[in-house]
Amino acid sequence: MNGWTLLRRNIIHRKSLSLLTITAVAITVFLFVILLLVREGIERGAEKGYGPFEVVVGADGSESQLVLNTFYRAGTPTGNIPFSVMESIQQEQDVEVAFGLTVGDNYNGFPIVGIDPAYFPTRYQDRKLRDGKLYSSLGEVTIGYYVAKELHLRIGDEFYGAHGILGQGGEQLAAEEHEAESEQASGEEHPDEHVSFSYLVTGILPKLNTSDDRAIFTTMDYAWAVHQLEHDADKEVTAVIIKPNSLLATQSLKQKYDQLDNVQAVYTSKAVADILNMVDTGTELMTFVMAICVLLAAVTMVLSLTAAVQERKKDVGLLRLIGKSKSYILLNLVGEGVLLTALGLVLGILLGHLGGWALTDSLFTRTGIHIASGHFATGEATLLVVALAIGAAAAVIPALRIYRVDALSLFKQ
Description:
Strand content: 15-25%
Distance between the termini: 24 Å
Mean pLDDT: 80
Radius of gyration: 30 Å
Strand order of the largest sheet: 3-4-10-6-9-7
Number of domains: 2
Order of helices and strands: HHEHEHEEHEEHEEHEEHEEHEHHHHH
Number of strands: 13
Shape: elongated
């Protein structure tokens, strides 16, 4: 009987213990794979999240909050700054390009962002729209890839926005309903929905794998039109994103606009690095929990293989008496542990990537983190090697107990 046949028969003979071992390994690997995919998604999103805009200017408050809301569409703004600050920034010689943003409304939970359409070629170069054209006048919108997919919006659809960043308000209109709704708007009360101001979908962005996939873009003056602000002195913007001319210009702009009252200027890369440091702290905690899971899986395997050794003492003794070497028996027992580990690994990796795929939409909607579940994450190869090594080490412990006992004594037992 060859070694492979013997391994297979032993595992099948002990179905319950084998299944327990495979399950313990699979659950541990599953959790590790999910953690690796999420961490890689966060790091990739952080790298791509702010494009060439090295400085962001906004209202005083948390730097992380300002950057998260401005570039990742997460959380709430720190406040608004005067329109005149944006005009001043755009006139700076140190600025290659700067765009003001106005936010504050949403449609079905997706933020409506007012920004100059020149933002897209500046950040994404020559990427072409998936459908339609960029907005060019008040009331026109270009929607992110995920927004179109989730809300089933198409070119020519109209809808009303709702006040707030995280709300679930808004109402979609059929084209024939728009005129009738507009006539009724003045006589009805709508505390959250801006029924008198509708948006027309003119374009759909391609899949960008950034937070822009889950945003709705329109002209910057939409917020002023919604709130009926006509004078420049009353107008405000939520933030200004800046692409400086040089590194020296970056420092100069930061220092100058950080001195204004109720205004802060932030190095985007530094704020993102601070956010990643916080994420790393959480990842370290999760890694510690995962290490405990690995230990439990290893203990389960040791107990399972120890029980197998107790059941197979006579079999091992017989193999020794018919001339099988100690090394053959040792390799067979260790091979059983490695095979069980390998089966658990394969199952855990499959479940991890399936779980990542299942979480992709909900995680992206809530956090903007895009999980690329279709490829191996950084660290999975190391996980494979370490898991197999642990499986082999766990199998050696009970195997050595048999290796050192006299064959006749094993058979007599």
